[in-house]
Amino acid sequence: GHRSASSSPDIRERTLIAVKPDGVQRRLVGKVIQRFEQRGFKLVGLKMLQVSEDILAQHYSHLRAKPFYPDLVDYMTSGPVVIMVWEGYNVVQSTRSMVGHTNPVEAPPGTVRGDFGLHVSRNVVHASDSVEGAKGEIQLWFQRQEILNWESCDQAISCEL
Length: 161
Ligand code: GDP
Ligand code: MG
Known about the structure:
This protein is of the alpha+beta class. The chain has 8 helices and 4 strands.
């Protein structure tokens, strides 16, 4: 239908999700993707890459002064990551709660980190923590043409609120 942007929920909200090197090594890519698919979110970008220290320094600029930063760089550059853009209503907040607390010890069962993680230094996935943050992260990791705008056949049921 024709509803104004102000009255309809933002079904085009996007977030950046990454399966970190430990998640790739442990063959958890499919399980992570399945959770977001079955929740109803739409995958609009996906690639596998070896992370450079340069992009990581931008991605984790808020952590550069932390004592664990060198370990974080070693961890994140230890192998390929699978990096994704997911779209849908309230996707940033919803995926953060599906991912769970940064420290898997604090992440409840049912969350990705609570089900698959043991330690904060190997916590399996990344998820943007705000809509604004997600915009910056998506710009950092993806070219515009790498993000696909596709209409899902169940749009009216799962997306148009
Ligand atoms: P996130 O948004 O939940 O991923 O958490 P942050 O943005 O605060 O931190 C980014 C990443 O840095 C986390 O996912 C961890 O992999 C890592 N990290 C955060 N805190 C610690 C810590 O105290 N020790 C270590 N080794 N890594 C940490
Ligand atoms: Mg973060």
